[in-house]
Amino acid sequence: MNEEQKSLLISSSSHFLPPQGVRLSYGTAGFRADASLLSSTVYRMGILAALRSLKTQAVIGLMITASHNKISDNGVKIADPNGGMLSQHWEPFADALANAPSPQDLVQLINDFVKEGIPFNGVRPAEVILGRDTRPSGDALLKAAKEGIASIVGAIATDMGILTTPQLHWMVRARNMGMKASEEDYFEQLSSSFRCLMDLIPSEKSNRSGPNDKLVVDGANGVGGGNLEVLLKQLNGLSIEIRNYGEDGGVLNEGVGADFVQKEKVVPNGFDSKDVGIRCASLDGDADRLVYFSVTAESNGKIELVDGDKILSLFALFIREQLIILSEEEDAKNSRQAHLGVVQTAYANGASTNYLKQLGLEVNFTPTGVKYLHEKAAEFDIGIYFEANGHGTILFSEDFSGWLVAKTKELSSKSKGSELEKAALRLLAVNKLINQAVGDALSGLLLVEVILQHMGWSIHRWNELYHDLPSRQLKVKVADRTAVVTANAETVVVSPLGLQEAINAETAKHSQGRCFVRPSGTEDVVRVYAEASTQEAADSLANSVAKLVDQFLGCSS
Ligand SMILES: CC(=O)N[C@H]1[C@@H](OP(=O)(O)O)O[C@H](CO)[C@@H](O)[C@@H]1O
Ligand SMILES: [Mg+2]
Q1: Please, what sign has the CA dihedral across residues 521, 130, 185, 398?
Q2: Which residue's alpha carbon is nearest to atom 17 within ligand 1?
Q3: Which reaction does it catalyse (predicted)?
Q4: What pLDDT is attached to residue 556?
Q5: Which long-range contacts (CB under 8 A, 24 or more apart) does 327-333 make?
Q6: For the chain (length 557 residues), average pLDDT per consecutive 10?
């Protein structure tokens, strides 16, 4: 690093001193905290994003969002060249950068880090594209990120404005693949592939129109509602009403949104008994999560939740159906056995895992956090991953995508209009529709809608695929949550000693009992998850284990 670069960093970073007495850490999905604490962290992540761009010689993304958390929070995450989360190898550097106490320490840290092969005078300058959600603190934080980027000599920052998190990740991926990457291109790709899937619906199934068939979407008062509206203008065949836009007086994520609906299992604001039976969906504040629900008859605000596990099951069924058609090709020498895999976390409802296994699918488990699920799913020709909370997507390997393109070409000359060709075209359209950078509520919603039409299913028919086991999630405040160490995709506690045995003993008391605990990566709590054959049993198991956690780890003051 030359002197010019060092002095630029010293002078610029002196405007962004870190908050006193707070240690920030790169959690499950980036930094998250009260927005008033974050300008120095975001500034420093601007630096990191520029360095990452130099290192990879590719475009990097920087997103300002705190997703489903309260409006006064904010956060920052980095998108790697493939559009996925920042490589885990860089997380310790991100932590160190965020917490360097003075400009001098910061420069020292960067200087040591770049010695390990970051080409400062490379052919290509650093390039970072930025986006933010609708939080009021976003504008100032975005400026801080830009200052960070500008403190790396020659770096280019492009502000894409207010976006959903998945849009920014999509743009990064598209840019680095040499494809068109504007917001319009995003909408165009989603809408054209959606239309293509609609055109491929078997004719006997495409009769489900009528007033009862509208979808009502809860936009969490975030960025997703408005974007969905833009998208809808480019589509036909879908009747969607959007509520909780954020412009009708509601507060971001307050009593609304996918996280609220999934955890509380009650209707979001703006929904009531008038909506009984209607197919409803809920996005989170930055539109990377999606769940469906319907309001039940003797309601009290209760809902039937159709969560990420069921979206995963629907996607898996549809993909599997197309793969079966393709594998029945008579000319066996040209057929290819695609390796389809699904990936879940321990939070997946046990009934969903059983269902997927019964379909003959390979089910894999990873720790919580999209970065782990995504990495695992990328090992398959087609990998489908979802967290129960509604974050997930489908990944097609490069190799399989190439095969699919060649196959559709071959079939279009050899057997135009055949079932075989339609199956291949459907997979190709899913490959375009689904956001393969990260989970995306908008592209996920379009895929759910078209698959339901393809199957001729109502939300109730879909929900009947299997019955969720009753479950309960609790949070326990402890003195030091990092004292809980887990193994086997977070299903077993290895430390503190004795806790797992105690959990086992409680779990054994309940029919179909399953329970695990883990430290949250985004909140200062230990999470408890319990499942059992009745709601009372799940509640009682969760409560007993929460007490155990408290006993073993001691309550904070
Ligand atoms: C139980 C749960 O929902 N955990 C969430 C939550 O992580 P925790 O590490 O559990 O705080 O936030 C993550 C980021 O949004 C998300 O990936 C994850 O699924
Ligand atoms: Mg989110």
Answers
A1: negative
A2: 369
A3: N-acetyl-alpha-D-glucosamine 1-phosphate = N-acetyl-D-glucosamine 6-phosphate
A4: 47
A5: 328/420, 329/420
A6: 94 95 87 96 98 97 97 97 95 96 97 89 89 98 98 96 98 97 98 97 66 86 96 90 90 97 95 94 98 88 95 98 88 77 98 97 96 96 98 97 96 93 98 98 98 96 97 95 96 97 98 97 93 97 98 73
Is 304 marked as a binding-site residue? no
Convert the pLDDT of each residue in 281-336 to its tens digit: 999 999 999 999 999 987 688 999 999 999 999 999 999 999 999 998 766 566 67
In ligand 1, the atom with minimum distance to the C-alpha of 259 is: 3
For 309-439, give the CATH class: alpha beta
Q: Map out the domains of the chain as residue ranges.
A: 3-162, 309-439, 471-553
From the CA of 439, which ligand is nearest? 2
pLDDT of residue 297: 86
Length of the chain: 557
- Domains 3-162 and 471-553 belong to one CATH topology: no
Nearest by Cα to 346 from 151, 206, 516: 516
Is 3.30.310.50 the CATH classification of the domain at 471-553? yes
Residue type for 460, please?
Answer: H
CA dihedral of 77, 83, 84, 88, whole degrees rounded to 10: -70
481 in Cβ contact with 526 (< 8 Å): yes
> What is the CA(512)–ligand 2 centre distance, in A?
31
Q: What is the ipTM of this complex?
A: 0.98
Cα angle 494-95-72, degrees, rounded to a multiple of 5: 100
Separation CA 321–CA 258 (nearest Å):
28
CA-angle at 401, arms to 448 and 166, nearest 5°:
50
Chain position carrying tokens 């974007």:
227
CB of 521 closer than 6 A to ligand 1?
A: yes
| CA atoms 92, 98, 102, 104: torsion sign | positive
The closest-lying atom of ligand 1 relative to the alpha carbon of residue 28 is: 9
Task: Say what the pLDDT of residue 206 is.
Answer: 57
Is ligand 1 within 6 A of the CB of residue 29?
A: yes
Catalytic residue annotation: 67
**Is any ligand 1 atom within 6 A of the Cβ of residue 347?**
yes
Find the 289 Cα to ligand 2 centroid distance in Å.
Answer: 6
Fold of 3-162: Alpha-D-Glucose-1,6-Bisphosphate; Chain A, domain 3 (3.40.120)
User: If phi over 0 gives left and psi between -120 and 50 gives alpha, with beta otherwise, what is residue 202?
Assistant: beta
From 26, 28, 375, the mutation candidate for ligand 1 (largest count of ligand atoms within 8 A of CB) is 28
